[in-house]
Amino acid sequence: MASNDLMPSGCRVLATLPDLFFIPEFVFGGLVWTLVASTYVTFPNPEGWVMFVSVFCFLFTTILFFIFISGNNQSSMWPGLDASYHALAAILYLSASVLQASTTIGVRELTLLDPTSGNPFNKIYKLEIAAVVMAFTVTLFYTLHAIFSVKRWKKS
């Protein structure tokens, strides 16, 4: 089977697996970026890595999406490149998710020191929890995208 039969272009990108995962990757990846950026860093923590991963993956997923939409993904290298990128993104997001969860545990300890509703760490803690949930969700979508991309690559 030729690679142009395997790699969708145009609006077909929005209707085929694994390319359908581009949309939740944008949404949840953007939420991770936004939620982490809205927190207040009070002590040295690894959220810089989380921001790097979320921005890097958001930008490269956007570029890849536009390449697919425009139909410039029809050479034989694209199935392997697509699978490789999404596997790398899944690994990067998994590392970022674990670090974000670790940071959230640290912020939780600050909320326990002063559990009053006026404690500014209560709001930050809730944002951190949301960022953890979104980070693991986007990790799942990148992993699924990678798995289906590898299957497509094997067919080519």
UniProtKB/TrEMBL annotation:
Q: Which Pfam families match?
A: MARVEL
UniProt superkingdom: Eukaryota
- Among its keywords, does the record have Lipoprotein? yes
TM stretches of this protein: 20-43, 49-71, 83-107, 127-148
- Specify the MARVEL domain's residue ranges: 13-154
Q: Which InterPro entries match?
A: MAL, Marvel, MARVEL-CKLF_proteins
Q: Where in the cell is it found?
A: Membrane
Question: Which GO cellular component terms are attached?
Answer: membrane
Question: What is the membrane topology noted in the UniProt record heading this document?
Answer: Multi-pass membrane protein
UniProt keywords (A-Z) are:
Lipoprotein, Membrane, Transmembrane, Transmembrane helix
Q: Which family does it belong to?
A: Belongs to the MAL family.
| Protein name (record) | Myelin and lymphocyte protein
What organism is the protein native to?
Answer: Umbra pygmaea
